From TrEMBL:
Boundaries of every Transposase putative helix-turn-helix domain copy: 4-48
Coiled coil: none
Organism of provenance: Candidatus Cryosericum hinesii
Keywords from the named record: DNA recombination, DNA-binding, Metal-binding, Transposition, Zinc
Domain Probable transposase IS891/IS1136/IS1341: 173-278
Protein name: Transposase
Domain (Cas12f1-like TNB) ranges: 291-357
Leader peptide range in chain numbering: none
InterPro entries, A to Z: Cas12f1-like_TNB (IPR010095), Transposase (IPR001959), Transposase_put_HTH (IPR021027)
GO molecular function: DNA binding; metal ion binding
Family membership noted in the UniProt record: In the C-terminal section; belongs to the transposase 35 family.
Length: 384
């Protein structure tokens, strides 16, 4: 048995006063984050020491900070600490940035204490805000205890509450069958090709809406910045982009659920999607697919069912290796969609890679590795 956390996201319908309170909390949380970051930078430049400041130190100077939920300011401090921790652990993440009012997503997080957060009669009770109308499209299980709530507002003006819960989880005991293993090879045009020679054929939601979006963007460019027409047109574009994102996420959820219900093992490659998008000029297609999000969905859905997601190292030459005899074709290029092996096998690139990924994943399972995102090495980089 282990303690697990799961978030549930619901649409909120705040009234005018509650919207004003949310806007105030968004601004105060952003202000505290930026002020603490600025003071830390000045302190370090002055005498090379680290400033351990807290939101309470700013409430005396800025009285209006007392008007919002105190936990919103405390969580802004924790988010800044996390940003510093990530920077020191991985320099590639970059130094913490200031949060812009225009480009930063409006949100704040509050915590449950003394039953200050609860759901009752179709409303979400929040500190300083009161009862906010909530669309409960699904029920939170009784054994899930609320830990925190993150309130956010999208560019289109929609409000959401992400309710983080905590519960005791015992993985179901399932007799996993290796014959129910599936390998997935990422494919830009098809999303993926599996080891059963099935193409996912994911709809290209962004590309389908691209012509309309371009037209609306041109209209926006001809409007006066700061005018009412400009604001309305900007929101119109935000609504369209949000719909594209929602359609993509809905498809990914349905596809990952289908695979998690049907297969005991799902094997994927730990490919660098960001690097692929930049180096191969596939940025628009890669971002439109959302394969990274798909892997995350698969991971937790398989785990909830007592099944396994097996991750293969990205340097494993899945496309170049013949799944029949194991020979590696080092001369294979990205343009070669099919090839003939010396053993006489005629290989389709994506299907061959998916079969190799499945076989490599099962070999990791047999050595008790590669479970839930473990990128265990199969072959070194020099072998690719």
């Amino acid at each position: 048995m282990s303690i697990m956390r799961k978030a549930y996201k619901f649409r909120l319908y705040p009234n005018t006063e509650q919207q004003a309170m949310f806007a105030k909390a968004f601004g105060c949380a952003r202000f505290v984050y930026n002020q603490m970051l600025a003071d830390k930078i000045v302190q370090y430049k002055t005498d090379k020491t680290v400033l351990h400041n807290t939101p309470a130190q700013y409430k005396g100077r800025f009285k209006w900070l007392r008007e919002v939920d105190a936990f919103a300011l405390c969580n802004a401090q924790l988010q800044l600490q996390t940003a510093y921790t990530n920077f020191f652990r991985h320099k590639s993440v970059g130094f913490p940035n200031f949060r812009s009012r225009k480009s930063h997503r409006d949100s704040y997080t509050t915590n449950l204490i003394h039953d200050n957060i609860c759901i009752e009669n179709g409303h979400l009770k929040l500190p300083k805000t009161g009862l906010v109308c909530i669309k409960l499209h699904r029920q939170i299980p009784v054994d899930h205890k609320i830990k925190s709530v993150t309130i956010s507002c999208t560019s289109s003006g929609r409000y959401y509450a992400a309710i983080l819960t905590e519960y005791e989880f015992t993985p179901p005991v399932v007799a996993l069958d290796e014959s129910k293993a599936l390998g997935l090879d990422y494919s830009s045009p098809h999303f993926y090709v599996d080891s059963q020679d099935t193409e996912a054929d994911m709809p290209h939601f962004y590309r389908e809406a691209e012509s309309i979006l371009n037209r609306e963007q041109r209209r926006l460019s001809r409007m006066v910045r700061g005018s009412n027409n400009y604001a309305r047109q900007k929101r119109r574009i935000a609504v369209m982009l949000e719909r594209v994102s929602d359609c993509r996420k809905d498809w990914l959820h349905k596809q990952s659920t289908e695979l998690a219900n049907k297969w005991d093992y799902v094997c994927v490659e730990d490919i660098n999607l960001r690097g692929m998008a930049g180096s191969l000029k596939l940025g628009k297609s890669t971002n439109d697919n959302g394969f990274g999000m798909f892997r995350l969905f698969l991971d937790y859905k398989l785990a909830e069912r007592g099944k396994r997601l097996v991750t293969i190292n990205k340097w494993f030459p899945s496309s170049k290796t013949c799944h029949v005899c194991g020979a590696v074709n080092h001369a294979l290029t990205l343009k070669d969609r099919e090839w003939d092996c010396a053993c006489g096998a005629h290989l389709l690139r994506d299907l061959n890679a998916a079969i190799n990924i499945k076989n490599a994943g099962l070999s990791l399972v047999n050595t008790n590795r590669g479970v839930h995102g473990d990128s265990s090495l199969i072959l070194s980089r020099s072998c690719s």
